[in-house]
Amino acid sequence: MSKKYKILVADDDSDILEIIKFNLERNDFEVTVTNKSTETYELALKIRPDLILHDVMMPDMDGFQVCRKVKSSDILRDTPFVFLTARNEEHHEVQGFELGAEDYIAKPIKPAALSTRLKAIIRRYTKEEKLPSLQLGIFRIDREGYVVYKNEEQISFPKKEFELLYILASSPGKVFSREDVLSRVWGNDVYVGERTVDVHIRKIREKIGDDYITTIKGVGYKFVIG
Amino acid sequence: MSKKYKILVADDDSDILEIIKFNLERNDFEVTVTNKSTETYELALKIRPDLILHDVMMPDMDGFQVCRKVKSSDILRDTPFVFLTARNEEHHEVQGFELGAEDYIAKPIKPAALSTRLKAIIRRYTKEEKLPSLQLGIFRIDREGYVVYKNEEQISFPKKEFELLYILASSPGKVFSREDVLSRVWGNDVYVGERTVDVHIRKIREKIGDDYITTIKGVGYKFVIG
DNA sequence: GTATATATTAAGCAATTATTAACGTTGGAA
DNA sequence: TTCCAACGTTAATAATTGCTTAATATATAC
Q1: Looking at residue A1, what is its pLDDT?
Q2: Backbone phi, psi, residue A54, to 5°
Q3: Domains and CATH numbers, chain A
């Protein structure tokens, strides 16, 4: 199953919003809509969509302005921005691309094609960040292979243990509370007892040795380079 | 010791209020409740909660109106607003997000999960300034790692000692009374004898040397740069 | 010198973490 | 499918560490 993409759609025509929402959701997108372009930016900041689909002509603030704002935001710059245009607005295209829009989609929309096209755009423009391998002293932590090398020795980890070690090792010397760890490795919507972290730490220590993860009592754990 | 969060809860069902209050308080939140949504805004202004948890459907004024009011207030704008919705009200979500709500929580509530989730939301949306490391003469006090460097030597501290040293060192030359120290490190509603501070000071001096914390008799202690 | 405040030490207690074992779940192999 | 092994989680118990207090010693101000 591929990742569920989040789309933010802005259009002042609520019928169009409805059509788009319905179709995208049927194709397994997560869709948020708005009919006020003044809200697009704030909404996008909040939900961090994988793509923004925006009408060019909107009453309160036109799509170009929104696009400019998005593309000048550190956080949203890399979010693909796609314009919805009426057929007779093609002359807007140049302007839009100059602002950094990734694509245009003409109305009327062909529902069947829409989701395919958006997926393609997302895949093309979102560099799937592959988290890099870490080299820390005698350790090399290889994210691709879920493998850790201690000098030449290869040690393999199950998922949770690996993720936990990776989090700690990605900021060596920084103390992570169990809460930190849980929210990063398990996610914010999974509710697991904090003692679970202890057990995983134990297993990691068993494999890499006791000297590389330090307990700060009352605070948490940290990775220290040996 | 992490900060104690204040939550304002509005719901017309007093049973639910009770359940939520009980559970959050057990998890170290400070909880204020109301069953009149017309009061939410005024109450929020008064107590400045870290998060507002609000039922969508309420008899006197619905949650959306309250949300709009909160989000258009300079003072409360940044307070995370979370809706409580019944399962069959999911279609409200978009509307809520448009108004600026930060999240939704569906009833029936899972008490165990609630506090964790709210904490996560608060942390995500309220930028808590992370306390920086301090560089003072030959000392570097690294808050992230709960470690102090004296020149190149690394000295580790248990929680209380570290916090105490950090407080003193964050205003070098300033004298802190034992009372000051207690309220800042131990918190305001923990009652410990003042002599306890002496013992901690002793242990810190043992580790970093006697010359860096000066006693002002009758007043308190201060950190002096060596 | 005396009174008051602080330093020092040690010991009991409380809280946190370590460790082990058991249980339920999942995914893969036969 | 069925079985087995690995994984993740929890719970129970052990071990450890840190916190606090109390008691005694030392220093300082007047």
Answers
A1: 39
A2: -135, 130
A3: 6-125 (3.40.50.2300), 134-223 (1.10.10.10)
